[in-house]
Amino acid sequence: MNSLDTIIFGNGCFWCTEAIFQDLRGVESVESGYSGGHVENPSYEQVCSKTTGHAEVVKITYDPSVISRDQILDIFFVTHDPTTLNRQGNDVGPQYRSAIFYKNEEEKAAAEAAKIKAGPLYDNPIVTEVSPLINYYPAEGYHQNYFNQHGNQPYCAFVIRPKVAKFRKQYLDMLKK
């Protein structure tokens, strides 16, 4: 078996991000969580209070022989608006910031390169934070696989479903069969 790698980033509500990346061939798992803050083992309520410093993130475990880190980063930059500070659509607050948390200098360089590559796609400057991974805490169980389990919930139906549909159409050749 090939060795797996992980990448952790935030690009708005983790329910949306999780739903998109779960569809990709080569992605073994996607876990919603929290990263980048100063509170240990935060709860969702604490993170929503905007006082923990944490972002809603996903931890993606993937097979680099099937999907590359660069491909994942390219998808990261086109599936959210990396030009809005602490906001994605109606989700507002530092927990919804665009952020990539790197484990080593190689990941940092890849994140910075992807950020530069994505720049021409947007009219405004990209504000994605590229920071060292200092912590990661899995979100509560009820946040995991949320869209697949609650697809008819209003937020899922009206916010996530259209985003996922657009993604699936654009990346059809990269989806799990």
Structural class: alpha+beta
Per the CATH scheme, the topology name is Peptide Methionine Sulfoxide Reductase, Chain A
Major sheet characteristics: 6 strands, mixed
Any idea of the CATH class? Alpha Beta
Q: What separation lies between the terminal Cα atoms?
A: 20 Å
Q: CATH superfamily, called what?
A: Peptide methionine sulphoxide reductase MsrA
Note the main attributes of this structure.
six-stranded mixed beta sheet, alpha+beta, two-stranded antiparallel sheet
Structure description:
The chain has one domain (5-174): Peptide methionine sulphoxide reductase MsrA (Peptide Methionine Sulfoxide Reductase, Chain A), CATH 3.30.1060.10. Helix content is 33%, strand content 22%. The radius of gyration is 15 Å and the shape is globular. The mean pLDDT is 95. The protein is α+β, with helices and mostly antiparallel strands and 177 residues long. The protein contains 6 helices and 8 strands, in the order βαβαβαβββαββαα. The longest helix is centred in the last third of the chain and has 17 residues, at 154-170. Helix 1 runs parallel beside helix 6 and helix 3 (69-78) crosses helix 4. The strands form 2 sheets. The protein has a 6-stranded mixed β-sheet with strand order 7-6-1-3-2-8, covered by helices on one side. A two-stranded antiparallel ribbon has the order 4-5.
Explain the layout of strands and helices.
Layout: E1 5-11, H1 14-21, E2 27-35, H2 44-48, E3 55-62, H3 69-78, E4 87-88, E5 91-92, E6 98-102, H4 105-118, E7 129-132, E8 137-138, H5 146-149, H6 154-170
Parallel strand pairs: 6-7
Antiparallel strand pairs: 1-3, 1-6, 2-3, 2-8, 4-5
